[in-house]
Amino acid sequence: MTTATAGRTGAPARPASNTMWHAVRRALRRNHAAKVAIGVLFLVVIVGVFAPLIAPHDPNAQNLTLKLRPPFWSAGHQPGYPLGTDNLGRDVLSRIVYGTRISLLVGVSATLLSGVVGTAVGLVSGYYRGWRDQVFMRLADIQLAFPTILLALAIIAVLGPSLWFVILVLGLTGWVNYARVVRAEVLSLRSREFVVAARAIGDNDRQIMTRHLLPNITAPLVTIGTLQVAAMIIAEASLGYLGLGVPPSIPTWGGMLADGQLYLRSAWWIAVFSGAAIMLTTLSINVTGDMLRDVADPKAYTK
Amino acid sequence: MPVLEVNDLHAEFRLDTGTVRAVNGVSFSVEPGQTLAVVGESGSGKTATALSILRLHPTPPCVYTGGEIVAGGRDLLTLPEREMRQVRGNEIAMIFQDPMTSLNPVKTVGAQIVESLRRHRSLPRGEARARAVEALREVGIAHPEARAGQYPHQLSGGMRQRVMIAMALACRPKLLIADEPTTALDVTVQAQIMELMADLQDRFGMAIVLITHDLGVVAQVADKVLVMYAGRPVEAAGADDLFERPRMPYTRALLESMPRPDVPGGAVLDPIRGAPPNLLDLPSGCAFHPRCGFARPECASTVPALEEKAPGHAAACVLTDDDLPGTSEGRRVSGT
């Protein structure tokens, strides 16, 4: 798509193919919380991508002589360890910086995975209806009746801790949201005349689903996707907290939270800073998601 | 050789509440360059017939229970779906009633024409794009290059219908099925669209099946007319002949319910009494008899067959020419 410039020669103005982007900018102008949120998200992504350059220490380097040092403003802090150290003398800041990578990686990959699976299921269910719909929706009911964390726990307990298993498990348990929303949208779209018109020019079912239905549901997909990234980050942290996430050699926010909990009275900074990282990131994502939902549905903010 | 020949087509919808015989023994044929109008009230089976030709009804609930649809020397009803897709948009194209909803709202009109072109012709993207702009120019859209990059909501209703026509004709089909193409448009735009279709028909020599309930339009453009009532064909004739001497009381009633402000007393409408029958529960015998001013006792028991009453003029009615008074001078629509 090209960014078009409006012709001033009497020809109709070339439409902006970036209409969505314009709407985002307009929404941002009145939504200050979203501005801050997007700024924070941007920062988080930068930190994650450039972790090795930003982190002052190796996140796994232990130094027992420097264990449980407080953050820089307290008495007894160690210069060079601005957020203090944990029970093994590892730098809290460096571990949080590296933890960002895992959180983002898991959040985004699991969301993409569940998005692809859920959207495909929703398209097929809503378009064909009939037995496919019955089967998929009953599966969705079963999935929803299962506590996700419990399921993830069971699978990882069997398969062993691994970053990819965590992504796989979270990805494959998160498809229901997409499937239901996509199905509902498709049910209302499939009887629209442009779908019949598409068949009348010779499109087959797959082409109708991917070229006509899918482009019409990008707005809700983007919205659910954003919110789901936050949910996935929390889920990963929860698994980490329970000790069943990624292997302990990889620093994660959830794992730090679990370690820090033991020292909450003596060394609050371990748990508080990692918890704050989780909260700040997911909050920013949710605020951004809300803004995107407003953009996707103009009725939500026009008075 | 006709572009399309439909013989005794039957299509029914099997619903939970009963079976609707939406298309009940319809036959017609269209020659190249000819326009056939299919007319009737809402629910008479016009659109169901049109969609049946391209097999666009969802199955289930629709079942094609009989007849044949011959185009290009083969029966479309028995064609595998895969080959049927090659017919759609390529040999036979269709445009729909509401141009507001028959274009994909999230794609530029240019992209939609490009898609329909590339579906049937292996064209490089750039060339398809150029052909799409050309197609928009052919249907009389000003600044086609700029319009090609616009979304449907940025165009007026008339322009959208032009886009639909451009899309339908992009692959130069032999037959265009137009399902009430002007119903959703303003009167002035209606005339423009009909004129455009006639123009393009002259240029490309395609046949048109025009589904409509606008008899004014029929009088202007149709060569042949098929009148439908409750899923059945009730009268088939050349357009002039039909307007001159309708031989089925329903057709007469349709003609009489048209306003004729140009003749004395013609502005007073003479509507058809009653309502179209419930397709789930059709009246016995001739489906029109409860509303017919000429009904006889036998009309309630026997279904009249569509038979030739005069050369090239068939009607499904027990009445003979002697029973029907000639159309009064003031009601004649022919010659418009």
TrEMBL record, chain A:
<dbReference type="InterPro" id="IPR050366">
    <property type="entry name" value="BP-dependent_transpt_permease"/>
</dbReference>
<feature type="domain" description="ABC transmembrane type-1">
    <location>
        <begin position="100"/>
        <end position="289"/>
    </location>
</feature>
<dbReference type="InterPro" id="IPR000515">
    <property type="entry name" value="MetI-like"/>
</dbReference>
<keyword id="KW-0472">Membrane</keyword>
<feature type="transmembrane region" description="Helical">
    <location>
        <begin position="135"/>
        <end position="157"/>
    </location>
</feature>
<keyword id="KW-1133">Transmembrane helix</keyword>
<dbReference type="GO" id="GO:0005886">
    <property type="term" value="C:plasma membrane"/>
</dbReference>
<feature type="transmembrane region" description="Helical">
    <location>
        <begin position="217"/>
        <end position="242"/>
    </location>
</feature>
<dbReference type="InterPro" id="IPR035906">
    <property type="entry name" value="MetI-like_sf"/>
</dbReference>
<dbReference type="InterPro" id="IPR025966">
    <property type="entry name" value="OppC_N"/>
</dbReference>
<comment type="similarity">
    <text>Belongs to the binding-protein-dependent transport system permease family.</text>
</comment>
<dbReference type="Pfam" id="PF00528">
    <property type="entry name" value="BPD_transp_1"/>
</dbReference>
<keyword id="KW-0812">Transmembrane</keyword>
<keyword id="KW-0813">Transport</keyword>
<feature type="transmembrane region" description="Helical">
    <location>
        <begin position="163"/>
        <end position="182"/>
    </location>
</feature>
<dbReference type="GO" id="GO:0055085">
    <property type="term" value="P:transmembrane transport"/>
</dbReference>
<feature type="transmembrane region" description="Helical">
    <location>
        <begin position="36"/>
        <end position="55"/>
    </location>
</feature>
<keyword id="KW-1003">Cell membrane</keyword>
<feature type="transmembrane region" description="Helical">
    <location>
        <begin position="102"/>
        <end position="128"/>
    </location>
</feature>
<dbReference type="Pfam" id="PF12911">
    <property type="entry name" value="OppC_N"/>
</dbReference>
<feature type="transmembrane region" description="Helical">
    <location>
        <begin position="262"/>
        <end position="283"/>
    </location>
</feature>
<protein>
    <submittedName>
        <fullName>Peptide ABC transporter permease</fullName>
    </submittedName>
</protein>
TrEMBL record, chain B:
<feature type="domain" description="ABC transporter">
    <location>
        <begin position="4"/>
        <end position="255"/>
    </location>
</feature>
<protein>
    <submittedName>
        <fullName>ABC transporter ATP-binding protein</fullName>
    </submittedName>
</protein>
<keyword id="KW-0813">Transport</keyword>
<dbReference type="InterPro" id="IPR003439">
    <property type="entry name" value="ABC_transporter-like_ATP-bd"/>
</dbReference>
<keyword id="KW-0547">Nucleotide-binding</keyword>
<dbReference type="InterPro" id="IPR027417">
    <property type="entry name" value="P-loop_NTPase"/>
</dbReference>
<dbReference type="InterPro" id="IPR050388">
    <property type="entry name" value="ABC_Ni/Peptide_Import"/>
</dbReference>
<keyword id="KW-0067">ATP-binding</keyword>
<comment type="similarity">
    <text>Belongs to the ABC transporter superfamily.</text>
</comment>
<dbReference type="GO" id="GO:0005524">
    <property type="term" value="F:ATP binding"/>
</dbReference>
<dbReference type="GO" id="GO:0015833">
    <property type="term" value="P:peptide transport"/>
</dbReference>
<dbReference type="Pfam" id="PF00005">
    <property type="entry name" value="ABC_tran"/>
</dbReference>
<dbReference type="InterPro" id="IPR013563">
    <property type="entry name" value="Oligopep_ABC_C"/>
</dbReference>
<keyword id="KW-0472">Membrane</keyword>
<dbReference type="InterPro" id="IPR003593">
    <property type="entry name" value="AAA+_ATPase"/>
</dbReference>
<dbReference type="InterPro" id="IPR017871">
    <property type="entry name" value="ABC_transporter-like_CS"/>
</dbReference>
<dbReference type="GO" id="GO:0005886">
    <property type="term" value="C:plasma membrane"/>
</dbReference>
<keyword id="KW-1003">Cell membrane</keyword>
<dbReference type="Pfam" id="PF08352">
    <property type="entry name" value="oligo_HPY"/>
</dbReference>
<dbReference type="GO" id="GO:0016887">
    <property type="term" value="F:ATP hydrolysis activity"/>
</dbReference>
